[in-house]
Amino acid sequence: LTAQPDFATFCISCVQGEQCVELKSLKMYLWSFRDEGAFHEKVTNQIADDIIAAIKPRRLRVEGDFAVRGGIGTVIVVEHEAS
């Protein structure tokens, strides 16, 4: 946690169950991370966990592609499949 800004592109793919996420709500939810200090893995896992809890998708994949900082780029992938 260096207080330096991080930038990421998230790709969220899911096979929905009976519920879905409204795009504006998703955008505002993602903005809520804007001023939070957290590790890349924690943020990506939190997004996946919150979507799973909210809509119980049959399948979900969240990919966080974090910009290069200090010469190192990070891509975090979380996958979930309902049993």
Give an overview in words:
The chain is α+β, with helices and mostly antiparallel strands and 83 residues long. Helices cover 30% and strands 35% of the residues. It has 2 helices and 3 strands; from the N terminus they run βααββ. It has helices at 23-31, 40-55, and strands spanning 8-15, 59-69, 72-81. The protein has a 3-stranded antiparallel β-sheet with strand order 1-2-3, covered by helices on one side. Strand 2 and strand 3 (72-81) form a beta hairpin. The longest helix has 16 residues, at 40-55. It is globular, with a radius of gyration of 13 Å.
Task: Please give a handful of descriptors for the protein shown.
single chain, 83 residues, alpha+beta, 2 helices, globular
Which regions are unreliable across 5 or more consecutive residues at pLDDT < 50?
Answer: none
Q: Please describe the biggest sheet, giving its number of strands, its sense, and whether it closes into a barrel.
A: 3 strands, antiparallel
Q: Helix proportion of residues, in percent?
A: 25-40%
Approximately what portion of the residues adopt beta-strand conformation? 25-35%
| Alpha-carbon distance between the two ends | 36 Å
Shape: globular
SSE pattern: EHHEE
Main structural class = alpha+beta
Number of helices: 2
Cα-atom Rg, whole angstroms? 13 Å
Strand order of the largest sheet: 1-2-3
- The number of strands is 3
The overall pLDDT average reads 90
